[in-house]
Amino acid sequence: MQRRHILLGLAGLPLISSCEYLHNRSDLDWTEDVLLPDGRVVTLKRHQEFKGSYEIGDTPNPSNYWLEFSHPDTRERIRWEQNDGSANLWTLWLTINKDKVMLLTAPMFGSSYESNNYPYPPYILFQYKNGRWEKESLEKITPKRIRNNLTWNPKESRLRIEKLHYHLDKKETSDSYYQEDIYQHNRPFWVNFDGVDRQVFGWDSRKIQNRKDFIEHALPKKIIDIGEKNGKF
To answer: Is the residue at 232 inside a domain?
Structure first.
């Protein structure tokens, strides 16, 4: 009898794994509060699909997605949408200053780096103008030191989003970047653009013969990624 119970238990494992797999590849919808640099809070409505590539034993990577929100001054409904699959961009930071709406993003995967001509620093800045998003130079970003205020990787944040009943407050949203990563667990993430006077493109390690010379002569001199340590910047 005991052996029979064990066999029945084992027989249920594939079903559980299959259900979990299907759940993790289903679309995810949630809302998140975003703390703007000026102290105001806007609420974003977000939708994420999971139809990207993946390795055996893993779940599909994020693919197409959109987010939308109301401009706090004009009440215009603004939408950001990505439908390029693996060439999509991660969302990192949103700022709104009167009619100036800017969104900082970063390439998701290798194909995204390629489609954006291998940017370094590896970020892409957009500004919302006349109903559309246009690329802007990183030099225009203000303030120069920013902390992420958007959910970075929905795949890594999925369990948290579900646990919090599909709504993240401003703190949970800001803490989402690398929140599930063992190397920066529970550490907010900052980006420092001080000293970055220009952005270069075309940095493809597969094509550049002398990487050392390229770094010395073309890349910005200062490291820009800074993780907050012990609560101090």
So the answer is: no
